[in-house]
Amino acid sequence: MRQVNHFMVDGAASSAGRKHQIWNPSTGEVQAEVALGDAVLLDKAVATAKKVQPAWAATNPQKRARVMFKFKELIEQNMQELAELLSSEHGKVVDDAKGDVQRGLEVIEYACGIPQVLKGEYTLGAGPGIDVYSSRQPLGIGAGITPFNFPAMIPMWMFGMAIAAGNAFILKPSERDPSVPVRLAELFVEAGAPEGLLQVVHGDKEMVDAILDHADIAAISFVGSSDIAHYVYKRGVDNGKRVQAMGGAKNHGIVMPDADLDQVVNDLAGAAFGSAGERCMALPVVVPVGEDTAERLKEKLIPAINALRVGVSNDPDAHYGPVVTPEHKARVEEWITIAEQEGGDIVIDGRGFELQGHEKGFFIGPTLIDNVTPQMKSYQEEIFGPVLQIVRAKDFEEAVKLPSDHQYGNGVAIFTRNGHAAREFASRVNVGMVGINVPIPVPVSYHSFGGWKRSGFGDTDQYGTEGLKFWTKVKKVTQRWPDGGGDGSNAFVIPTMG
Ligand code: NAD
């Protein structure tokens, strides 16, 4: 059986010796095992990070950028291999897996500009003979705890920014698909990064708790489900760390009566069912405004959803593949049953779906549920599967209120030809990331990514300028160089605006 080990300079084997099975979701077979680490192993990783970080922080930013440039090249050269490996453990189709790598790569590209974005601020003559400057310094050792659904992109969001800014980084990826994060760390060393600057430790709650409690880890970035995000945030902050913790989502797509419905249906097919709905920026809720819009939309949606092809993850013609584990398949199917019991109309039922020749794979057919209401549990909670729910709104006001009142506030989209309605919606809706005729509004790498409410704990976003803020602290220097005259004219003066 293939073994996935920690990526460290010292002590690759877990002292506890626990293992976790890695599935191939398309075949339903176990394809590898990953070692699960503990606090003793983490101590070793932190000791290495402490050794290498000061020299890296003292390396000038253009040299750090060169490593990032080389890393970018290596990822591009290895794109196919990375995507296939990712796809085999996660279950998303290979093209989608390439997108996963590509969106992470874009953050590495942003990190290549670190000399520019790290430039500080300078005020000449803030007082008599006094200058003030502010510069961003690294925090020391940062850690990232990442979910299964973007095993390339989300680690790169974090370590790309943290390391370019001068930190050492310890990554704890999801134990469900840990191979790509390890491969990225290998490529990073090949790109010229000092060994030990980026280490990968595997594990479950035991390792997460060790990270949260380690005195020498200064900052933790987490992405995963909301209850765990909240837990990580509280425990990390209690331990005096800087923490950002992104959580779950239930993104709505508002369809105004004037929207181009063919475009909407096309967008929804990708945004609700792509990657089997296992995206935090998926659109699992569609909100047609007005009964007529709802009926017209439903009529077009049904054939489009029935035409979706479910296949193994390396089937080039498949629109989406299996979900990640048998437990997750069971949970998603249970949500469909709950929705049915709550009074939702199951228009297309994906339960019990079997792919011929791959009967043991974790496949779920595309599912459409109509007449879902805000009171239903299946609407309030995240399903994270290939399930689209229709919640009918009577007017624009109700359509703004639905996502605004929802416990999650990651992303939202509005489809309309009316600029005024779109502008009004974008400014009023209580959600962090908004798409206007864009179904999955993940901001580009030089903006920042982050949801609101229970989709994000902490006050900084991922990557872009917000990411840079998270991984650095601001040093403020007020300087005065007296000429040494000794007549008292150089007595210290507190700078004032006057
Ligand atoms: P998860 O919360 O199960 O796991 C995330 C990480 O937490 C993993 O590394 C896991 O090992 C660790 N973990 C699991 N149980 C733990 C526990 N009890 N204590 C401490 N740590 C624990 O999430 P997942 O299923 O891997 O990923 C899917 C979730 O992530 C969805 O809710 C999705 O919406 C969310 N997500 C959010 C974003 C975002 O940016 N908001 C992005 C991607 C995914």
UniProtKB/TrEMBL annotation:
Please give the SUPFAM superfamilies that the UniProt record associates with this protein: ALDH-like
What does the record give as EC number? 1.2.1.27
Q: Which domain of life is it from?
A: Bacteria
What keywords does the record list, in alphabetical order? Answer: NAD, Oxidoreductase
Q: Where is the Aldehyde dehydrogenase domain?
A: 16-477
GO terms under biological process: L-valine catabolic process; thymine catabolic process
List, in alphabetical order, the Gene Ontology terms for molecular function in this entry. methylmalonate-semialdehyde dehydrogenase (acylating, NAD) activity
Any Pfam family hit: Aldedh
Q: What class of enzyme is it?
A: oxidoreductase
The name on file for this protein is methylmalonate-semialdehyde dehydrogenase (CoA acylating)
Classification of source organism: Bacteria, Pseudomonadati, Pseudomonadota, Alphaproteobacteria, Sphingomonadales
